[in-house]
Amino acid sequence: RRRPPRRPVPADLRRSHPPTRSCCPCTEMATPKSDEWYARFFDPVFFDADRVLTRDPAAVDIARDAHPLVPVVSLIGDGAKIPPKGLILAPMHMPRLLNDPAHGPSVIAEAKAIAKSIRSALTDAYGPDAELKHLVWAGMGGSIEDKFAAIASGLAQENAVQFWGVDDVNRDTLAHILSAIAAEEEAAAPKGEPPLKFALKRTVVVAQALGMTSVEPVFNVQKAFAPAYERHGLSLATHFYKVTIPGSLLDQALAPPVVNIPHQPFGLSTCAGRHDYVSNGMLVPLELLGASPEAYAKSLNLDGPALEAAFNTAEWLGRGQ
To answer: What is the separation of C-alpha 256 from the centre of its chain, rounded to a whole number of angstroms?
Structure first.
């Protein structure tokens, strides 16, 4: 099929030297200005270097013509200024924050504390021997794919906690998850207690989505998982959480007793769903699955050869190789 014409790249965003053609995406293409180009995402109009945070357009006016990269990093709008929570710079800025020696440890500690509180809710409800054995993540797109990628890469293991991801509305998938966790816990269930009820006591359900169109996690919680808990007389407040931004479809639909997990530190909303791998939507499940949020954060901080390889790969893909 014929490929649609590409939009021209603004002159001030083009590389200073054209790359050479290559069949290898990471080693042979020349990108001599990648560090300088990437550094523009940290210009003062976007980045508060003292606080290591993205500028908040609600506190500081940022005109749409203030920087050539504004069309790349801001939400589309008709106004002359970027709206509150309108800068989408988490993929660049969050790794810097997580690895900052002064601020990073407290941010990671917060994610670990959230994970601890999730486990503590189970022991508070069922006694000190209660365990988290199953983590069900109802998401959509990037808010679920990052967890699958972490497990597939070996970053996260399913040794102590089994991960169950669902990102579509499919009764077979939902039935499989419920029947599978019941089957896995049947041998450990006390005599006389239904295996599914015992398994649900060892399960936490997290719904994650950011936008106004992701109905799948809402449906899966409201129509499948929450009713299963209610039928067995189990508290939703003990087992159900949401990771989202204020005012989203999921935020409005899943009210308390569903417990809110802050999506980003300091109330930030600089992350689109496809970028959730730098939010608490990734750090918290990594901690629950026994992975190291610190090691993961370190791997996010691209510079030098890693940054060069990322740009090389992007250019290679952009040319349709």
So the answer is: 22
Mean residue pLDDT across the chain: 88
Neighbour count for residue 7 (Cβ, 10 Å)? 6
Q: Count each helix (H run) and each strand (E run) in the chain, helices first.
A: 14, 7
Task: Decide if 290 contacts 157 (C-beta within 8 A).
Answer: yes
**Residue 15 — φ and ψ, nearest 5°?**
-70, 150
Most confident of 142-151, 280-289, 311-320: 280-289
User: Residue 100 and residue 95: Cα distance in Å, rounded?
Assistant: 8
**Structure tokens belonging to residue 190:** 């006390």
Distances (CA, A) of 42 to 5, 39, 54: 31, 5, 9
Give backbone dihedrals phi and psi of 245, rounded to 5 degrees, phi first.
Answer: -115, 155
**Phi and psi of 58, rounded to 5°?**
-75, -25
Cα 109 to Cα 21, 103, 105, 112, 160, distances in angstroms: 45, 10, 6, 5, 21
Inter-CA distances, 271 with 15, 20, 73, 110, 211, Å: 26, 33, 10, 18, 11
For 193-223, the DSSP string reads S-HHHHHHHTEEEEEE--SSS--HHHHHIII
The pTM of the full predicted model, rounded to 2 decimals, is 0.86
Q: What phi-psi label fits residue 251: left (phi over 0), alpha (psi between -120 and 50 degrees) or beta?
A: alpha
N-term to C-term CA, the chain: 15
How would you label 221-247 residue by residue, b for 16+ Cβ within 10 Å and e otherwise?
beebbbebbeeeebebebbbbbbbbee
Closest CA to 135 of 84, 89, 181, 176: 181
Cα distance between residue 217 and residue 103, in whole Å: 32
Sequence-separated (6 or more) residues with CB below 8 Å from residue 242: 206, 207, 208, 250, 251, 254, 258, 259, 260, 261
